[in-house]
Design goal:
The structure holds 2 protein chains of 2 kinds. Chain A is α+β, with helices and mostly antiparallel strands. Helix content of chain A is 47%, strand content 11%. In chain A, the strands form 3 sheets. Chain A has a 4-stranded antiparallel beta sheet with strand order 3-4-5-6, covered by helices on one side. In chain A, strands 1-2 form a two-stranded antiparallel sheet. In chain A, strands 7-8 form a two-stranded antiparallel sheet. Chain A is elongated and about 55 Å long. In chain B, 73% of the residues lie in helices and 4% in strands. Chain B has 9 helices and 3 strands. Chain B has a 3-stranded antiparallel beta sheet. In chain B, α1 crosses α3. Chain B is globular, with a radius of gyration of 18 Å. The chains are: A alpha+beta, B mainly alpha.
Chain lengths: 293, 221
Amino acid sequence: LASAETASSEGIQHTDQGEEVQTFPAPEDSIIIAVQQDLSEYRSTPQIVYASSDRVCIHGLTTVCIPQPVGWTALVAGQTPTWGASDVKQPASLAEAAFVRIRDRLRAGSFAPDQRLTEQGLARMLAMSRTPVHEALERLVLAGLLEPAPNGGYLPRRLTLREIRELYELRLLLEPQAAAGLAGSQPPPLEAARLEALAEHGIEFDAAVSRLCGNRTLASLIGWVHERFANHPDGHWDGPDGAGRHRQLLAAVAEGDGSAAERAAVEHLTAAQDAAIAAWRHGGGPARPGPRR
Amino acid sequence: VRQVAAIARPSLGHQAYEAIHAAIAAGGLQPGEPLTEEELAAFAGMSRTPVRTALRRLELEGYVERDDAGRLTVHRLTRRELEEVFFVRELLESYAARLAAERISDEELRRLRELLDADLKAVRKRQISALAVLNDELHAIILRASRNRTLQELVGTLRSRARGLSAFAVGDAPTRRAFVDQHIQLVRLLEDGDAEAASETTVQHLRMARDILLEGLPDDG
């Protein structure tokens, strides 16, 4: 990481290539490993790349999170994670930024299952005023990720078994079509290599397939379904040999065989569904670190 | 006199529709451009009443959008947006029809039959806005009858995620009649509990609507 910029304060800075970039306050559980100004179509907004315990993220963007080994190499080599590009956008408002940052923490399992979250506490943690945090909390409740706590504040919300079943019905409806779309459009070699590297990363692989499928509306709906699992970070629930089935899907994509890719996706999701339901039954919810009541 | 007015009005409204539609398609009216009845009336060389009629239809078809304050702006739907959204609607709505065939209640079926009567009346009287409203309710009931709440929520989020979702294929009189016939067929299949055929009819229904909407769109530039 010779070229990494390590400062994290706000303001204009220079990378060691002499690029001028503006920094954002980094999340407290992460370190900045690189500063990138030139991110494909998004040249106008300089980005900070930061790494937390298990992933590399481009801060200020909503959904680009790259599992570390892939992102690390790609970004250090100065390449652009184009497969995330369709999702890359600056938060439109402070409330949107607050929503994204709280959601990402839920996704990363940063809160204990019984940790009460308050507007004031979150505002302090995110160094924001209460108004955008208030709006973000309302949206998180609507998205089913938080629920009001009995004594005020909010708690991370678990999915019910019925919701898990319904969500998997939708995954089985939508994602095989995305796999077929990807096979039909033949991703460029770089993208294919990135998919290959993501094969062992659970739902992030499926998310990457949807982003490359060629139908933005379909990808956006799949993103919505995946988002509902945000509180279940250990619940990617791939079942045994999820990576193997991901590679099977990629083999079909490489041959341009849409119906084989579709079948591989159905097989993969059926196994994942069984594993998710078994995990839910076993623990009354996905296994989570932290204290339990 | 009233009869003459009733005949003349749709045709003036139609002329206004054609003029504004052509201007949007040709790019004379740009996406995002605010539209006012006064300016469009001057542009089309007619009074505000037919312009208002035309704007209602353009709004139904997705060419024109209305914001929360009621202001109208141009939205030029692309073929790609429309094809994407119909691909997804086909998946979701045919699945909803399949589930509904097994799960729909007698009460919901009764309401659907009422809607079919209203549908037939509206198609005879050429009440296009009424047809669009009835169409929305009919498909909303089928979605609800799927008893998959997550599916209903997902369809609910489509509105903010996809352009062209609310595009309603108006079509000519025989086309409108054909849409109503498909509604009648669909309701019968739901009554019979024929999940496979209900799903297939939904696909046909949506493809017909998509093709009509595509006819009105220029190639994506």
